[in-house]
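Hello K.,

You asked for the raw outputs rather than the summary table, so here they are, unedited. I folded two proteins back to back in the same session to keep the settings identical. This is the first:
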Amino acid sequence: MERAGVRLVILGAGESGVGAAILAKKQGFEVFVSDFGEIKQAYQDELNQYKIPFEAQKHTEELILNATEVVKSPGIADKVNIVKKLKEKNIPIVSEIEFAGRYSNAKMICITGSNGKSTTTMLTYHILQNAGLNVGLAGNIGKSFARQVAQENFDYYVLEISSFMLDDMYEFKADIAVLLNITPDHLDRYDYQMANYVKSKFRIVQNQTASDHFIYCDDDLEIKNYMAYADIKSQKHPFSIEHELKNGAYLKANNLMINLTNSDQFEMTIQDLALQGKHNTYNSMASGILAKTLEIRNETIRESMGNYKNIDHRLEFVANISGITFINDSKATNVNSVWYALESLNTDVVLIMGGVDKGNDYTMLKELMRQKVKAIICLGKDNKALHDAFEDDVEVMVNTFSASEAVQIAYHMAKKGSTVLLSPACASFDLFKNYEDRGNQFKAAVKEL
């Protein structure tokens, strides 16, 4: 069906942009894709295959400012020139999730939070698959949501949703929403105002009704403060490792308990969880509650939470060489993630960190640094912020400019029984393509030792 005169412009030709273009074409829109950077050859080939016009390394205003609507990649900030001009002309800008959601009747399970999103999303997907549900996985992970709506037919979607995506979501509704935690991250995109970031995260519950579910951490101060005056229509399911709760999850002795109204009790010892460490107990609680709201059997949940394998670049075991354990946590691009990584280790640590600092406040790491970290190996072009933050807390700090140099120095500094941890707290694009590239180079360097 041809949507005469309805012009959809897509900014950004990565996975989400190309997915949105394919869906838009299928829905009969006139489509144009524009990327200010280069477009990968594989994506160019696909756009050509679908006869979708595109441009790279520029934004041609006369081809963009005539749009009926724009789908914008979450990586493009609002302060970018072309976005400002679109806003001046009142041309609606939406996220790929918002756009694709219009064309799917599947049940939407949406997971957000500053940390633990990917792990919780993958664990939830794992449980739902094991329960035999027809489920897709999208958002910040894997194939784009729009592409799957265009090409697949799932009954459920588990979506990892970032605050940048939420900022451009308006009508979309999560049937089940999960908010794991809120800690300072990406504040450069929120005028350095924590309140703006918190508000953005709570967009996960917008449009929810009394038949929907909201699963959240009751130990998180920012969430608790906001919940005190928020008007949330959905059924609330809190989780905590600090106190017992009704209609949610909590710890009793060493058991993870889930008690939901109208549902049988779930119980599992935390030693049996595949994901260890305090932060992962939270992730397992969130996924467990979610599975219970979908009436998945206790045995299936227990089995799935016991045999799950963690994702790459998130506290990923690489090797044990001469009694030294190497762990790749390249996905830790903020301070809180590093705190979680250090908190989950019970050995001395040689920490490799650094990269593009997003205005980080390192104060929360100081105590753990003093307790566990014997040396910091800085891996980045400008390490001044790290030196300023930690030179009084850690005996040795060394600057390096490549993954192999960092790994070799770490290996010589580490003692038998200690851990070399890559957990950068920073973005990677000063020395690497992305956090995956950084993690892969780290793993390759360890294998060369």
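The second followed immediately with the same parameters:
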Amino acid sequence: MKLHQSFLLSNFKLILSALIAVLLLSTPSASQLSSDFYSLSCPNVELIVRDTVRSASEIDSTIPGKLLRLLFHDCIVEGCDGSVLIEGNGTERSDPANKSLGGFYVVESAKRLLEFWCPGTVSCADILVLAARDAVEQTGGPSVEVPLGRRDGVVSSASNVRPNMVDTTFSVDQLAQRFTSKGLSMDDLVILSGAHTIGSSHCNTFSDRFQQSSGGNMVPIDNTLEKNYAEELARKCSADASDSTTVSNDPVSPFKFDNQYYGNLLANKGLLNSDSVLATDARTKSKVEAFSKSEDSFFTSWAESFVRLSSIGVKTGNAGVIRFSCTSGI
């Protein structure tokens, strides 16, 4: 009898060990991102975020552009860790470069829903990546499968913004240096700049291309801008325009994610200096020309570059936390 019990116990231990091994192999590694990271813990995460973005965009058509910009401003500073979402004095969000960001409430709304259905499971960093991904698809852009499993950062400092942020007055050399420092290539620079096919910019972000006359009007001083386009911008950003006045990044199809941005650059209608220089530098012009001719090529390249952008400096495993609220550091 004792021998029989010992045999059964031994077999039970072997079976248990085998089951544990199978579970470990079927569970996504905490140290890596995976497209099915939440398949067991929160299978509806993508549906919830997608519906939240769609509902917000139906009310406010500027939301997709804001979400895409919000992701870039998050990833380019501390990596894609949701630190730009944290409110408070001295945070990334408080820096002047981030004062014009929007769409925060969309991420927070999705987080509240996910905390109800899958408490303590989905990071704000992953929600932001999904929201930006969905913003592109819902405005006509490509569908992108993004790996998930990011964890949230708890450090958010305004002092980290300026040394990492891209400025609208940058030359191609400066842009390339900033992108290279984040592990992105020159091609990524041209591709990701295509995000400006949607969204808008405040007048002060391209004020260096104009000069204020004695009468208070804006006078174009940048001869690289197409004349009629420059005059149109001057009217929209006249002396009596408010500080909150914005202009669409793409004057042709401002709410559609397409390849029109590149055609605009070749027509000298790039809104920002950091846009225009891409069409005049030999290192980037050929890619601009190629994308202006083929939207399929742009979309294919976008999917690849977007994944690289959303993987910058990610925190996984024990390197981060799952914040209860995206606007707070806890």
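The domain at 172-308 is CATH 1.10.420.10 (Peroxidase; domain 2).

Happy to rerun anything if the numbers look odd on your end.

Regards,
P.
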